[in-house]
Amino acid sequence: KFWLEEFAGDMPVLNLPVDFSRPAVQSFAGDSRVFEIESGQANVLNELALKNETTLFMVLLTIYNIFLFKLSSREDIVVGTPIAGRNHAELGSVIGMFVNTLALRNYPTGEKTFLTFLEEVKENALQVFENREYPFEELVETVSVNRDAGRNPVFDVVFALQNFQARTDTIPEVDIEELKFKPFKKERKTAKFDMNMMAVEKGDSISFIFEYSTRLFREETIDRFIRYFKELVSHVIEMPGLEISDIDIIP
Fold it and tell me: CA 61, CA 54: separation in Å to the nearest integer?
């Protein structure tokens, strides 16, 4: 009932400013860029989350939604996020991948302040997490009546926060008796979505892996988007009570 109510009516479509025409059939060719925000900014974001009784995930998701709003002018945005599916203690020792995908639908509008919108994102996320066991595949079958072969069902953008060392260049070498393990760096040239931003807590700083479709975006466009995102983070840190419409990140 929750998910059917959440996605009642027409499905929102996020039209981002792309460099190339969208293929008729979805392409998974992609690339990624890595960037980082300063440790001081990361600390302020964590303090902001604590002060407003939210989490770092919710704060960053709010910023990501505003970032997408600024790029697209859409006030109805769906962002996908993966979530661990080991909800029962007996699954703790079972080998396998237990992951579900959640669709977080939020409504960034210009008259809301960042803090007001953060509270909305928080309340929505809590409701979504309470209904996390509904399989994403069933949601797709239920709401994606008119599928566009050039898009993912339900959402085209993803956000995730990892609080463990997720990149091979941050994993140390390991020696066990006569064995020595070293991380193997493998370049990924695929993208399952138009844009996928993954934040990784790394000590006192936060790193971001920005995966994107090369059939839609040029590398220089993504570099520009990263500058916009970092500018948005700075604005939020300096003036969290500012209305979204007054946050100027795009020249």
Answer: 11
Say if residues 103 and 77 touch (Cβ distance below 8 Å).
no
Q: Is 111 exposed, middle or buried (0-12, 13-18, 19+ CB in 10 A)?
A: exposed
Nearest to 107 by CA among 154, 142, 141, 68: 68
Alpha-carbon gap, residue 57 to 55, rounded angstroms? 5
Helices 56-72 and 219-238: crossing angle, nearest 10°? 120
Secondary structure (3-state) at 180: strand
Q: Which residues contact 242 (CB under 8 A, 6 or more apart)?
A: 113, 114, 235
User: Considering the entire predicted model, what is its pTM?
Assistant: 0.90
Tens-digit pLDDT profile for residues 79-136: 999 987 666 667 667 777 667 899 999 999 999 999 999 999 999 999 999 999 999 9
Report the run of H or E that residue 36 belongs to, with start and end: strand 30-37
**C-alpha span between 204 and 202 (Å, rounded):** 6
Nearest CA-CA partner of 122 in 84, 202, 71, 65: 65
Q: What is the pLDDT of residues 143-168, one digit of tens each?
A: 866 778 899 989 999 999 986 554 44
- CA dist 47 → 55, 167, 232 (Å): 10, 25, 17
Q: How far is CA 251 from the centre of its chain?
A: 24
